[in-house]
Structure formats: structure tokens, C-alpha cells
Design brief:
The complex is a heterodimer of chains A (292) and B (250).
Chain A: E1 5-14, E2 17-27, E3 32-36, H1 43-50, E4 58-63, H2 71-74, E5 77-80, H3 92-100, H4 109-115, H5 131-143, E6 149-153, H6 161-176, E7 180-185, H7 188-194, E8 197-202, E9 205-210, H8 212-217, E10 222-227, H9 233-236, E11 243-247, E12 250-255, H10 258-267, E13 273-279, H11 282-290
Parallel strand pairs in A: 3-7, 3-8, 5-6, 6-7
Antiparallel strand pairs in A: 1-2, 1-4, 8-9, 10-12, 10-13, 11-12
Helix pairs in contact in A: 3-4, 4-5
Chain B: H1 2-14, H2 17-35, H3 50-80, H4 83-89, H5 94-122, H6 130-142, H7 145-157, H8 163-177, H9 189-194, H10 199-210, H11 219-248
Helix pairs in contact in B: 1-5, 2-3, 2-5, 3-5, 3-6, 3-7, 3-8, 3-10, 6-10, 7-11, 10-11
Classes of the chains: A alpha/beta (292), B mainly alpha (250).
Chain lengths: 292, 250
């Protein structure tokens, strides 16, 4: 059986800009895959190619082994896109019914609305919805066709913490029913919670493709975090660290030898406070992998 | 699918009063202001009343208005709000989408006639043969097709916020210049010279001829002119659509 979605050595140029520089990705049916990467890494471009919204400059994009613009392939796919609009003057249940009519075997309308938690807004006009509710409406539209594969491009963008948490739970619920989910995100915890596989994209290339645990283990080590208002770059020179993040006076280091790092810092006479040493998480791994 | 899409398109337009109210009521208001006062006067040398003549004018105005605005504004809005992106990722066949739009516009156009005809009958005392009512209705609906293409072209060429302004700038002056509000003879000579080449003038001739008013050329000539404009507008719309495609979706 052909994979659910596949990019084969795909490149994409927008004018002079190389958005993708040879990406190969294979998503099998039933997988839950997160595409992770900083803004502009090529996540949305990859999704656009897989959905047939854009054509690869070279290489191939396939859905179920078919061209992504093929309507049979598309009728097995549900989509949530960044920055897409829906008609403001339709009611939630009307637009859900409209999208259901595009698919051969849609969910019942109530089920689609309930999956997105919009029961109370079923009779509201789209223009009356809040940002978070609108995002959930897009989710309802993505799942209402009962698709085999769900593409979610930055599904939780603009949501508050609580909204994001419950939304992740909805996506996980859908994935548990054996469906394939491909989502892009720059929230690492989302990838960690949802995905069996994380594809890290950076500057148009796949730089890692592995289960979240394996990606974390690439940064076998510890995260050392502290504040040091008087710290200069010179103080960090030559330390056995794999990544450094400096945010104002808060410094974060990734290292396999936290003890030697701290000993050296103290020897150099650096004043530090709020010291914290912990095991590295996916976020740290991500920083380590993509640090330029 | 076609039915759902059509009813959704219809609701989308219906719930925008700026569109639905103006396109349904404005022709009636114009008819009340201009047509009723002298409705029973006969056009010089004919038995046709001004009420009937102006009914034909307003029918043409109303239907072309629906076609240009519904397509122009819908397309421009869609581009502005990026609705086209999500629709494109669905299995909705583009032809169904296009067809649903056309059906919606034709239904809307027919509705304007449903409002306008009885109003002219009651308030304007317009009495026509059954065949004349019918001829007027089918000619204005069929003759409006070039204006669909024009609406599309403007929708793709104008920005989302300027589409309404652009359409008004084009549509209102040409409606005047085509003699839809005042008979052509009352217009300045320079405009009289231009008007035979305006698509709305040709469209108007079809309406006036339908109710028995004299027109300057044969109906066939008017149809041929409209067909020519239709092809030209369609070509422009197609070009604009392709341009948009290659920019956004290649």
C-alpha cells in the first residue's frame, strides 16, 4: 500500500528563496507525525506541497501514491491551514454541512461539531466566534469528512495555554481512532505529547526524523540554567557545552558535564544566582539540533 | 454537493444587506423616483408608455448589477480573506464551485425581477402582454452573462478593498451613459456618440425591444455585440485568473 503522504527529494523555490532544499518524508497510514522547526524553516511549504496547493520546483509530492490535486486523494484528507478564512456570514452548522457535502462518507454534523467542542456555537455566525472558537471551527471542518489523514498546520497558534491543552487533547482523541495525523508546530511540547515521530526541519532541510525520545536522547545531558547579570561572553569561552541560550540575564547551557561547567564558572569568579540543573527535554534537544 | 454549495453561496450573499438590500430595492426606488411620475406618458410616436420603457431599463440595470457585484465582490473578498486557500485543499471540484456561484447569481437576478415587475405593474400601471413580460425576463437573464465574466475579471484584478469602488466607478457612469436612467437623447452629444459601444447600452436595447419600444438596430446586432463583449470579458477574466494562479499556487 502506498504511504499516506510522501515527499520525494522535493525542492521549492519562491523566486530566489530556497524554501525547501531536497526534502524526503514518508508518512505511513496510522502514524502521528509532528513537523517541527523555527519560523520559515519550510514546514508550511511542505504541507502545501503535500496538499497540492503548491507544486514542487523539483521532486515529487504524493498523497496515497496519487497526485495531491487528485480529488479521490483529497477526499481522504482533512485540512487545517494557517491564515485561511471561512465565510463570515454563514452559521457554524451551515458551514460544517457545506464541508461535509464535499466528502463521500462524512461524519454526522453533530459529531463533527462535538469533536471540536462547538456545540453551544452551532447556530452562531462565523463572524461572532472568538479566535479560539474559530480555530476549533477549522478543526471541525478538517475532521467532518471523516478523513483518513489529517493535516494540521500550526493548529494551536494564537490559543491561550488552557485552550491549547484541551485542543491537543482533541487532536490526540482523533489520532487514537487509528487516523493519520501530520501536524506542524513550533511548540515542542505539542510534538512531544502528540507525535510518535518528530521530523525536525530547518532552513529547508530535514535535520532529524525520529521518535521524540530518541531526539531527546541526542542531547544526553543536563540543562544548566542560572542568572548572571555581570556575565560576559568571555566567561563562557572554552566550556564543555553543546548549546548556549542567553535571554537577558538568564543563561541556559546544555552540557554532559554540568559539574565541570559549574566548577569552571566559579573558578572564573562569575557571580551566579537562581541556579537550576535538570535533565534536558525536547526543547533543549531542539535548540541543540538547530543551533546555528 | 452542488445544492449545498449553492445554498451556502446564496446565504452568504443574502446575509450581506449592503448587497441584498441594494440589489433588490434600489431598482424599485429608482423606479419610484423616475418612472412613476410620468408612467402613463407615451414615448413619442409609439404606443409604449414611459412606465414600460423605464421598467425595461431598470430590469437591465438590476440584473447586470447583481451579476457584476455578486461575482466581483465575492471573488475579491475570497482573495482578501484567503478563503480560496482552504477551499482548494478540499475535494470540492472547481466546476461545482463555479456553477453554484452562477446559479446563485441567476436566482438573485430573478428575485430582483420578482420584486420589480409587480411594483411596475401596480405602482406604474404597466400593462404588457404575457409574451412581453416573458421576453423581457429571459432576455435580461440571458443577456447578463457577459457581466458575470466582467465581475470575475474585476474581482481578480482589483484589490479586496477597492473592488466595490472600482465596480461603482465603472458601473454607474456607464449605466447613465447607456441611457438606463434617462433616454439617450437627453445625454450630451459626446456621450451619445460613445453609448452604442457600451455593453450596457446593447443590453438595454434588448430590454427596450422586448416591450415594443423602438431601438436603433436589430436585436440580432445587439446580441452579437453582447456576445463579443462576453468573449472579451471572459478572456480578461481567464487571464486574470491564470495570473493569480501562477502567483499564489504554483
Amino acid at each position: 500500500m502506498p504511504p499516506a503522504a510522501e515527499l520525494v527529494d522535493a525542492t521549492k523555490k519562491y523566486g530566489d528563496v530556497d524554501a525547501l532544499r531536497g526534502v524526503t518524508i514518508r508518512v505511513e497510514l496510522g502514524e502521528v507525525v509532528a513537523m517541527l522547526g523555527p519560523n520559515g524553516a519550510g514546514k508550511t511549504t511542505s504541507i502545501s506541497l503535500l496538499l497540492g496547493l503548491r507544486k514542487p520546483t523539483s521532486g515529487k509530492a504524493l498523497l496515497f501514491g496519487l497526485d495531491p490535486t487528485n480529488l479521490d486523494a483529497r477526499s481522504r484528507v482533512g485540512v487545517m491551514l494557517q491564515e485561511s478564512g471561512v465565510p463570515a456570514m454563514l452559521k457554524v452548522r451551515e458551514i460544517v454541512d457545506l464541508f461535509r457535502s464535499y466528502y463521500p462518507k462524512p461524519m454526522p454534523r453533530e459529531a463533527a461539531i462535538a469533536t471540536a467542542g462547538l456545540e453551544e456555537k452551532a447556530n452562531a455566525l462565523v463572524k461572532e466566534l472568538s479566535g479560539g472558537q474559530r480555530q476549533r471551527l477549522y478543526f471541525a471542518l478538517a475532521v467532518c469528512g471523516d478523513p483518513d489523514v489529517l493535516f494540521l498546520d500550526e493548529p494551536t497558534v494564537g490559543m491561550d495555554v488552557e485552550g491549547r491543552r484541551s485542543f491537543i487533547e482533541r487532536i490526540a482523541g482523533f489520532a487514537r481512532s487509528g487516523r493519520t495525523v501530520v501536524l506542524t508546530t513550533h511548540y515542542l511540547e505539542e510534538a512531544d505529547q502528540l507525535a510518535e515521530r518528530v521530523i525536525v526541519i530547518d532552513r529547508g532541510l530535514v535535520i532529524a526524523d525520529a521518535p521524540p525520545a530518541e531526539i531527546k536522547s541526542r542531547v544526553a545531558g543536563k540543562r544548566v540554567r542560572f542568572s548572571a547579570p555581570a556575565l560576559t561572553e568571555k566567561d563562557l569561552e572554552g566550556l564543555p557545552v553543546t548549546a548556549v541560550t542567553i535571554d537577558n540575564h538568564s543563561i541556559q547551557l546544555l552540557t554532559n558535564q554540568p559539574e565541570s561547567v559549574l566548577r569552571e564558572l566559579f573558578r572564573r569568579g562569575v557571580e551566579i544566582s537562581d541556579l537550576e540543573v535538570a535533565g534536558a527535554d525536547l526543547e533543549d534537544a531542539f535548540i541543540a539540533i538547530t543551533s546555528h | 454537493m452542488l445544492f449545498r454549495q449553492t445554498s451556502a453561496e446564496f446565504l452568504k450573499l443574502w446575509r450581506v444587506p449592503a448587497f441584498s438590500a441594494t440589489s433588490l430595492l434600489l431598482p424599485v426606488v429608482f423606479y419610484a423616483f423616475i418612472g412613476i411620475g410620468q408612467a402613463s406618458q407615451r414615448l413619442q410616436g409609439t404606443h409604449v408608455t414611459f412606465g414600460a420603457y423605464f421598467l425595461a431599463s431598470m430590469a437591465v440595470y438590476a440584473v447586470a448589477n447583481v451579476m457584476i457585484f455578486s461575482f466581483g465582490i465575492a471573488v475579491a473578498n475570497e482573495r482578501g480573506m484567503k478563503m480560496d486557500l482552504l477551499m482548494r485543499a478540499t475535494p470540492l471540484p472547481p466546476l461545482v464551485y463555479l456553477l453554484s456561484r452562477c446559479i446563485t447569481a441567476i436566482v438573485f437576478a430573478a428575485l430582483t425581477l420578482v420584486v420589480l415587475f409587480p411594483f411596475a405593474y401596480i405602482a406604474g400601471g404597466v400593462r404588457l402582454d404575457g409574451s412581453e413580460w416573458f421576453t423581457l425576463a429571459y432576455r435580461v437573464l440571458l443577456g447578463s452573462i457577459p457581466f458575470i465574466a466582467l465581475g470575475f475579471a474585476i474581482g481578480y484584478l482589483a484589490g479586496p478593498n477597492s473592488a466595490v469602488a472600482v465596480i461603482n466607478l465603472i458601473y454607474l457612469p456607464t449605466a447613465f451613459a447607456s441611457g438606463l436612467f434617462f433616454p439617450k437623447q437627453l445625454l450630451p452629444q459626446i456621450i451619445q456618440n460613445v453609448s452604442p459601444y457600451l455593453p450596457l447600452y446593447r443590453f438595454g436595447q434588448l430590454g427596450w425591444d422586448a416591450i415594443g419600444a423602438p431601438t436603433s438596430e436589430s436585436v440580432t446586432t445587439d446580441w452579437l455585440y453582447l456576445a463579443g463583449y462576453g468573449i472579451a470579458f471572459f478572456a480578461i477574466a481567464l487571464w486574470a485568473y491564470r495570473r493569480e494562479e501562477s502567483r499564489k499556487f504554483s
